[in-house]
Amino acid sequence: MKWSIFFILLFSAVACAKNFSIKSSAFSDQNTIPIAYTCSGTDISPPLAWSNAPAKTQSYALILSDPDAPSGTWYHWIVYNIPSSIQALQENMTLPPGV
Fold first, then answer.
1. Is the distance from CB of 56 to CB of 13 less than 8 angstroms?
2. What is the pLDDT of residue 88?
3. What is the DSSP letter of 39?
4. CA distance 33 to 56
5. DSSP-assigned letter for residue 45
6. What are residue 15's phi and psi, to 5 degrees?
7. 3-state class of 33 per DSSP?
């Protein structure tokens, strides 16, 4: 199962985001996510870290979609209002208040 992670920068000039990147130490881009992070495993969130956000970034939104789900694209989670001071979400994350 391949998942897509979309990261949205909530600020005034999206074009400045060309060097922005998001990665996981648990899997690489466009590869199969390990079973531990699925309902067939322990069903926990994977570790995620991002870098090079534009200076005026106010907050982040994270959308995790599964484009090859049996019934079509399935959105597993949408997390928004992540403060710009946060640069990573740990495995099995606990979200800060307000997110």
1. yes
2. 92
3. T
4. 32
5. P
6. -60, -20
7. coil
Task: Kindly state the DSSP code that residue 41 receives in the 8-state scheme.
Answer: T
Taking the C-alpha atoms of residue 13 and residue 15, their distance in angstroms, rounded to an integer, is 5
E-strand stretches of the chain: 4-10, 21-23, 48-51, 59-66, 74-83, 88-89
CA distance 21 to 2: 18
Report the phi/psi class of residue 30: left, alpha or beta, with left for phi > 0 and alpha for psi in -120 to 50. Answer: left
Global pTM value: 0.76
Query: Is the backbone of residue 81 left (phi > 0), alpha (psi -120 to 50) or beta?
Result: left
Place of tokens 């998001």: 22
Name, in order, each residue with C-beta under 8 angstroms of 27's C-beta and a sequence gap of 6 or more: 33, 34, 37, 46
Give the three-class secondary structure for 49.
strand
User: Is the separation of the CB atoms in 45 and 86 below 8 Å?
Assistant: no
Span 28-46, pLDDT tens digits: 887 888 889 888 899 898 9
